[in-house]
Predict the 3D structure of the following.
Amino acid sequence: MEEGSVSAKIETAEERNGSGPSDEQTAEEVASERQSAGNPTEEAKARYNRLKLFDKVLEKSLNKFMEQAGFKGFSSTFRPLYKKNPQLMESIHKQFAEELRKTIQEDITKLIEEGMLECKLNEMDKLENAAKDDPEPAWRPSGSPEQDFCSYLTPYYQKQEAYVRLELKKIRAENAALAEKVRAGRESVAQTELRISAAVEDWKASVTEFEQVASSFHPADVFDV
C-alpha cells in the first residue's frame, strides 16, 4: 500500500513536469529512485542492539527446543500411562514443560549475569558506533598467521616497553634523589666528625695547659708570700 502511494506520487510529479523519464535516464535509475523514495534510510531504521538481538535468538532457540519436548514425544515415552489416563498425562506434561522452560531460563540468566554479557554486548554496540566515524579501515587477516600474531602482539609489547621505560625513569630519579640525600648525610657526618675532633683537640690542649700550670705551681711559694 505504501509503495503504491509512493509510485503514484512519483508518477504524478512526472506528469506535472510534463515528461516521464528522459532518454538518458534508464529504467534501473528510475526504479532505484522509487525504491529509495519508498524505503527509509539505514540511519532512520529502528535497529536492535546486540542484547535485544541475543534475547530474540535465544527465545527462538528455546521455543524450538521446547517443540522437541512436545506432548507427542512425551506421551509416546510413557504410552502405558497415557492409555490409562490421557488427561493426567497432559497435565503432567504441561507442568513438566513449564518447569523445564523456567529452569532453562534461570540457568541462562545466571550465565548472562556471571559472564556480564549485557555489559559486553553494550560495549560492542558502542565500539561499532564509534567505528562508523573512524576513517581507518577495519583490521582484516592477512592470510599469514605468524604475521597477524606479530601484528597483534607488537603493539602490546610496545606499550609494555614504554611502561617499563617510564617506571625505570622514575626509579632512576628516585635513586638519584636518595643518592643526593646520602651524600648530604655523609657530608653532615664528616662535618660533625671534624667539629668533634676540633673540640677534642681543644679539650686536650686545655688539659695540657692546665697540667703545665699545675706542675709549675709549688706550695712553698705560697708560704713565702
Remarks:
- The CA atoms of residues 58 and 108 lie 9 Å apart.
- Residues 145-216 form the longest helix (72 residues).
